[in-house]
Every structure is written in structure tokens, then in C-alpha cells.
Amino acid sequence: MADATAGSTARAEAGSMAGVEAELLRHRALAGASRARVLDALRRAGRGLDAFELAAAVGLHVSTVRFHLRALEAAGLVVRAVERSGRPGRPRVVHRAAPDGGQDGRRYLELARALAASLRRARADAARVALQAGRAWGREAALAAGERPRSPGEAVRALVGLLDELGFAPEAVGGEGSVTVRLRRCPFLEVARAAPEVVCPVHLGIMRGALSAWGSGVRATDLRAFVEPDLCVARLSLARREVGSGA
């Protein structure tokens, strides 16, 4: 009897962990602004769209749209179907938003709140753990981008592009040997206001991880959160003055 109870408990815990991992995968799939636009376009269309139709709808290259579709499909947010016309040639592949995707945003927000609160309560070094998590995320995102920046200037532009993709609405302003990146939008604003000591280090970690992966000679020195109600400011240290001059 005890063995049966233990087995049932283990299965329940495994199921719970699998559910959390699935939710994290879905949350991560929607972290990018462009990916969220692709999903929103599918929801608004109310019918299956192929990659070319989606590319035209959201203003992205078709290869980029296909990349986003693969991530959304893996997260269970999009379903794919093959339409056979009976005519010669390759069948048309279309994508639709998953039927249960309408409540995803609120569920992800609740999950993020729960994770941030749990980390803050459980770890005295929550900020350090969050920074490490952000570094891993940023490194993975930088490597997935493919092309590696060849100069500090290219690295800053690549980082701004990455932050824009994540929904931060960034703007880089050059200076003497440094660049200030003004972040006008936080894609995790509600959670960041509730647990800035967890969420903000993740964001700084993303920048540090990406820049480290690129080996660019650029370093994210600090991130000042909410210097204005709708503004956070990150500072980058450059190996050369190239970026500050606009190069």
C-alpha cells in the first residue's frame, strides 16, 4: 500500500513538473514581440495561413516567419495542417492558432508572478540566480541568431535588435566609450514592479549573456530600473569608441 501511494505521489509530482515545463516553453515562445505578432495574426485571420501570407501580414521575411512558427508549434500554440488540392505539386502547408490559446497571456503572467515570488522567498541570493538565468537565456538567443557581430558597433546594434525582438522598445544613445540603452517598454512590467529584484537581474543577464556569446568587447555594466515610470536604462561599456561615434 505504501509503495502504491509513493508511486502515485511520484507520478503526480512528475506530471506537475511536466506541466510547469510546458508552461515555461509556451511562455518563452511568446517572449519575442515578433513571435507574438505572428500568433496574433493567426488568431485574427480565423483561418489557416501559409508562411508567405503570414510574412505579408506581419512584415517579416518568410524564413523568419517559419522560424517563429516552429517555436510556436513546439509550444502548442499553433497547429499545422496540410491542404491537398488534388493538383500536381507540393501540398499547401497552413498554420492556425491553437483553439485554447486565447487565455495564454493571463496564464503566463500568473506563472511568471508565481515563479518570481517563489524564487524571492526561497533564495537569499535570488538576484544572483536570476542574473545567471538571464545570462543563459541571452547566450542562447545570441547563438540562435546565427551571425556573429564583428565589431563593438555591430554588437550594440545586434543587442538592440534582440531587445526589440523581446519587446523592450530599446533606443541606443552613444557616449565617450559607452552606450546608454533606453528601454521604454518592459514586456514583463507587472511582474517587474512586484519583484524587481528578480526580474530586472534577468534582463541585465540577457544583455550580458548575449554580449559574452558574441565576444564583442562590449559589456553591460548595469541596469537602472524605473528611472521614470516607463523607462529603464542600461549602460554598456565599449572596448573602442566606434559605437559612440555612430560607427
Explained architecture:
This protein is an alpha+beta fold and 247 residues long. It folds into 2 domains: 98 residues, Arc Repressor Mutant, subunit A (Orthogonal Bundle), CATH 1.10.10; 113 residues, 2-Layer Sandwich (Muramoyl-pentapeptide Carboxypeptidase, domain 2). Helices cover 56% and strands 17% of the residues. It has 9 helices and 6 strands. A 4-stranded antiparallel beta sheet has the order 3-4-6-5, with helices on one face. A two-stranded antiparallel sheet has the order 1-2. α2 packs across α4, α3 crosses α4 and α7 crosses α9. It is globular, with a radius of gyration of 21 Å. The C terminus is likely disordered.
CATH architecture of the largest domain: 2-Layer Sandwich
Low-confidence spans: 8-20, 241-247
CATH topology type of the largest domain: Muramoyl-pentapeptide Carboxypeptidase, domain 2
Shape, per Cα inertia axes: globular
Number of strands: 6
**What's the pLDDT, averaged over the residues?**
78
How big a fraction of the residues is strand?
A: 15-25%
Number of helices: 9
Order of helices and strands: HHHHEEHHHEEHHEE
